Amino acid sequence: MAQAQAQASFPSHAGAVLTRRAGRWVPAHYGSAAGELAACVSRVGLADRSDLGTLSIVSGGSSLDRLLLRSLGHGVAPGGAVFDGGNWWCRSRSGEEVTIICPYARVSRTSAIVGNEVRCFTGAAPIDLSDSHFQMNVVGRRTGAVLRSLGVYGPNGDARDVVPWGGADTGRPDISWLLEGPRSAIAIVANEQAARVNEEISLAGQPHGMCRVGLDAVERYRVLARVRRTETSAL
User: Fold this and answer.
1) What pLDDT, in 10s, does the model give residues 95-136?
2) Most buried in the list 4, 68, 125, 139, measured by CB within 10 Å?
3) Which positions ≥6 away from 6 have C-beta within 8 Å?
4) DSSP string spanning 160-198?
5) What span, in angstroms and rounded, lies between the C-alpha atoms of 135 and 180?
6) What domains sit in the chain, N to C, each tagged with a CATH number?
7) Contact yes or no for 76/159 (Cβ under 8 A)
8) ∠ CA(123), CA(113), CA(26), 5° rounding?
9) 185 to 120, 144, 222: CA distances (angstroms)
10) pTM value?
11) Cβ distance 94 to 163 under 8 Å?
């Protein structure tokens, strides 16, 4: 219900052609998926990522070390993020929280799979934040410039100086940033903060040609990026 209320008021749905993904309405495009893909290729887009879900596990650092070793076969450093099995496993700077970002359709299954191990190693349980938090995606060639404007890359504006889960310490506990790569970043915010953060990101993106894009463009851009990486590695 909370997610439905947030979606009803969130400005990303204005003018969008919606598609239903795992029980959620997500903007597919805003009139031209091809045009939005071109915008990501040459500039930058901002997308509603309600197709994603979020789980949180809070416990002591040593307990989470054991949990990660059992679940992934390796650890995750504080501030680190690892993509494994189709999910992002992100560890807080303190080392005492692990956030799992996964397709919303897999939230219940992922929670059930890791739930027993979470209780065994941490004495806690996964907390599903999917309906209380909102995800938005900065994606495209000018992603770095937008994040630099927002201070996510820190005072030097260098992506190499920051951690992938959280970016720089901007003093903004209301936003959690997952830096997926140089051309994609996901912001996770509480529903009640979503409209304000959306406006902040949009304003920072205006000088860089940011436009609203739908999930169709995001998915096609990811495929295009993978193809380019494959072609580059083959040279």
Assistant:
1) 999 999 999 999 999 998 888 888 887 777 899 999 999 999
2) 139
3) 134, 191, 194
4) GGSBTBTBS--S-TTEEEEEEETTEEEEEEEHHHHHHHH
5) 13
6) 2-51+133-234 (3.30.1360.120), 52-128 (3.30.70)
7) no
8) 115
9) 32, 9, 12
10) 0.90
11) no
